[in-house]
Every structure is written in C-alpha cells, then in structure tokens.
Amino acid sequence: QVHPVESGGGVVRAGTSLRLSCTTSPSGMTFDGYAVGWFRQAPGKDREFVAAVSGSGARTIFGDSGKGRFTISRDNAKNIVFLQMTGLQPEDTAVYYCAADGGTVLHYIPTLYEYWGQGTQVTVSS
What we know:
By secondary structure, this protein is mainly β. Helix content is about 0%, strand content about 45%. The mean pLDDT is about 95.
C-alpha cells in the first residue's frame, strides 16, 4: 500500500505563493508507477479536483481551480510530488489532499484514487 503524506500548508496572505509537497510514508510503498492527484476541500463543500500528474511526470491535468495558477510536478528520484500555487486568494482556503492511483489514466474523480493522505491546511487571508 501507498501512504501519502502532505506538507507545506500554512497561513498566507492573498496574492502570495505556496508550494505543497507530497511524499510517502516509510511504512508503505513509494509513488513509483502511481499517478498522483491533488484535491482540496473547504468547509461545507465537496472535495474538489485540483491537479494530477502521471507516473512518469509527462502528463498533467488541472481542474478549474488550478488552471493558470497552479503547477504540479514530481521528482521520482526523490519520491515527491509538488503543487506550486501562485496568486492565492481567500477562496483557495481549504484542506489540500494528495492521492495516489495505480492506473494509467489520469482522473479527476476522487473515488478513483486508491490511497489518500491526511491533508494539509491552507489558509489565505485577505
């Protein structure tokens, strides 16, 4: 099994940038061969797709929330996936989750991801 672990969340001001990281717990497998996605969930709202990257890193897809402002990348040698967020706004405030999927097709549907992290809180103040 894969145990994603997110980090990098915090409280930032509107207009600034933040980079989230996701790696795996030593107690499980690495991200090798797994597509990795980022989702976010604000209080009272459904979990929302942000971005995903293929196992090789060659392919990426973005949800509406991430297009134009967020970048997803991975360093397979270091077993880490990044979500670089720029131009953050208060509406980006949410818990951000990293998830892994062993399939070859990139998904935006949360239920198609097998393994989930505990999330990291991002709060953007105005």
